[in-house]
Amino acid sequence: MQKHLFIWFKVVVSITLLAITFNLVGADNLWHLLRDAAWQPLVLATLLLVIAGFTGMGAWHALLQSHSSSIPLISITAAHWSGMFFNSFLPTNIGGDIIRGTLITPHVPQRHFIVASLIADRLLGLYSLAMIGAIALTDKLYGTTAACIVAVCATLLVIITPLIAKTLLRTQPPSRFAPYRLARIFWSIVTITATPRPFLKAALYSLITQIIRVWQNLFIIKALALNIPEVDIWTIIPVFGIVSALPLSIGGLGLREYVAQAMAGSINLSSLHLITLSLVGHALVIATNSLGLIPFLVTRPPSQRGTQKSRTSSIADAS
């Protein structure tokens, strides 16, 4: 009952904030920008999102390799893209992750490890976004030298993470906490990060993914002739991404546009153009993620379809 109420709360938040945003900028003004859009840059932006989908899959693949290197790449690809589809069409932030975990269960029976890999994947994505935004903002405020220092520090933190995880495993054996579900998930995350090569590979893939996702917004700006300096994108989009991850609205819709409207004045940009960038970017993400319906329908064997509901419930409970 509480879950359903929370979902409805997020729906109301999204609709309310979108209504406020459209009222502030004017739906007619938004339509004038959209109708004159050039389609070629939008196609390029969509292609970049497709590439980002595969590099994002590479990050999760690397994390799963810390447990087993025998998981078929085609299965991971299908599960990842299926999860991307449901991330766009389920009213929860983790709906797609539950689908991903469910589809990969036949290859990784330990549910707590699957949940840990999904959480680690999410955390790496958020860290990469924050890293990009922090470097860009530092460069804008304090110059290139300061930005390089931030980049080096952020990179060193990633590099030493496996060492910290190994130290934790030596000082606090995970077996002590085996009866506790959350503890098993936590120590599974620590175990994943304690394997340097897969973890650092996943971190690199995650950073590349987020760079591509930010970069594709430059083509949206060109397509719509938006008055947004290209250099500011590397600060603005990470903020949008982090806001979208908050469990307060449906996929960040409404909340992200409201934040765009609030940001516009402080950075001397048009709120209409920022909101348009956010909405069109979200639409392209949905269009790209829709491709995930194909592997979801095609790759599941009949035997798996019969047990899909029970596995999904198990992964959701573990989450």
List keywords for this structure.
319 residues; mainly alpha; 15 helices; 80% helix; 0% strand
What is the count of structural domains? Answer: 1
- DSSP helix count? 15
N→C terminal distance: 18 Å
Structural class computed from helices and strand pairing: mainly alpha
Can you describe this structure?
The chain is an all-alpha fold and about 325 residues long. It has one domain. It starts with a helix and ends with a helix. The model has no long low-confidence stretch (mean pLDDT about 85).
Task: Summarize this structure briefly.
This protein is an all-alpha fold and 319 residues long. The chain is 80% helix and 0% strand. The radius of gyration is 20 Å and the shape is globular.
